[in-house]
Fold this protein.
Amino acid sequence: MSPIQKAQAVNDAHQTLGVGAHATDVEIRDAWKKLAFAMHPDRGVGSDAELANINAAYSLLKERAVSRPLQQPANAQAAAKPATAPNAGKVSPRPSLKPRVTDLGENALNELAEIAGDEGHFAHRVERLGRKVVYFVETPLSAGKNTVVVPTGQLIDGRSVAPQSLTFKASTGGNGKLNVPESMLKSHFPGATAVTICFGA
């Protein structure tokens, strides 16, 4: 890597983490921690590629900072909270995350309905919370054999979402939930840690 390319890479890393060129080691580390947490794919916000880019930026800036002693910001002592502060020792509750809801459009619904046929079920809404996916189907379960068609692939690439047809038997009919077995997750729902299908919803 030429000196110009190296300088450009360092500049890009500062921009990725949102820190200035003269940021201290502590400021760089804190910016990386905040950004990595906010953009983590498990929170349903960022992607694996974005997180890898953030980590690469931090690694580059951390390597450059190894030879320097760990620096505290100039106002670190003034900003430090006294031990007798009213909230000392209390942990702030983690904000609850809301699922990402997708109501499928007319074209997607038509495609799913065509695959499902007259006797099958198809999803009309998808909710994602991190790597957990819930599909909502308007029709209730039938006693015996059921076929349901759902769009999959959202966790890998939103551009490669494809319909997936599942067939299973139900002992009774009506509204209810089906938890997809772990053995089917990897082959049918790549990237998901849990998949639930809600019927009659």
Notes: Confidence is low (pLDDT under 50) at residues 66-71. The longest helix spans residues 48-65. The longest strand covers residues 121-129.
